[in-house]
Amino acid sequence: MIPVRWLTAFLDLPPQLHGAGSRFWSEVTGYAVSPARGDEAEFTTLLPPSGDPFVKVQRTVAVPRPDGSSPDRPSIHLDVHVPTADDIAPAAETAVSLGGRVVHRSPHGYVVLRSPGGFTFCLVHERLRERPLPSRWSDDGVHESLLDQVCLDIPADLFETECTFWAQLTGWELRTSGAHPELAHLTRPDGIPLRLLLQRLGDGLDGVVTAHLDLASSDRAAETRRHERLGAVALQVHPAVGWTVLADPTGARYCITDRDPRTGLVP
Questions:
Q1: 151, 147, 76, 52 alpha-carbon torsion, rounded to 10°
Q2: In this protein, which residues make up the domain named Glyoxalase-like (predicted)?
Q3: Can you tell me the distance from the alpha carbon of 141 to that of 217, in angstroms, rounded to the nearest whole number?
Q4: In total, how many domains does the chain have?
């Protein structure tokens, strides 16, 4: 296992979708967009009003991605934070020993890897400690919401391998759902801003592991209406299981769930 201190969700957006995606997720979360940085001004951070940031945006270039996905479509990758910069190299060795593969070693110090199922993640170091509180909304009844989960969408034949890899990599307890055997999650330590959910896709859906974002909300219907006013489209409503599937203005799917925004758990 590696000592995970923080998780950051990275929205990878091609140039033609970058503006719309950045605006939407800034408005949905209530977080300001930082000044751009990077050699090509390709990186921005969504800055919560309190607490440390855990969502970033990257304007991608039109070259094939390490995970095999199209460079013209939005995608998600994870930054896994370790305690110090000196921990990055041994953490990468641990990931490789568990079945991961190094894709790139950056001169800036971070390492890009793929999980056994092809999901891209980076090992990084930043001093981030304070998990932000949920945002409070009052335009359609008072409720709270928080982007708080990355769901890995895993082809069926890779599901057990990915579950084992992420549990062993993080050292977090893997818990399966009795009601929904296609779902498992890792029990995050206190203070980590993002949960990791692992979802087994239906038979016949192959390829590499991808990911989508999930929000927890105290009023899913009101939160859905708020997102629709910002440009999202509701695709599927699942009242029995407590989530709604939407597409953002870039076409990327994500979910609003009935989980408690403060604990991340089903009430």
A1: -120
A2: 19-124, 149-257
A3: 13
A4: 2
- Residue 97: phi and psi, rounded to 5, are -65, -20
160-169 pLDDT, tens digit per residue, is: 999 999 999 9
Do residues 129 and 191 touch, judged by C-beta distance below 8 A?
A: yes
In a shared domain, residues 91 and 188: no
Sign of the C-alpha dihedral computed for residues 39, 150, 263 and 80 taken in this order: negative
Residue 263 lies in a domain: no
- pLDDT band at 206; cut points 50, 70, 90: confident
Position 264 pLDDT exceeds 70: yes
The dihedrals phi and psi of 119, each to the nearest 5 degrees, come to -80, 135
Q: Where are the beta strands (DSSP E) in the chain?
A: 6-13, 32-33, 43-47, 55-59, 75-81, 101-105, 111-114, 120-124, 135-137, 143-154, 174-176, 183-186, 195-200, 210-217, 233-238, 243-247, 253-257
Residue 140 banded pLDDT, cuts 50, 70, 90: confident
Q: What is the CATH number of the domain that holds 76?
A: 3.10.180.10
- Dihedral, CA of residue 100, residue 101, residue 102 and residue 103, to nearest 10: -120
Q: Tokens for 12, please give them.
A: 């990878």
pLDDT, residue 163, reads 98
Q: Name the pTM for this structure.
A: 0.94
Range of the domain at 166: 135-257
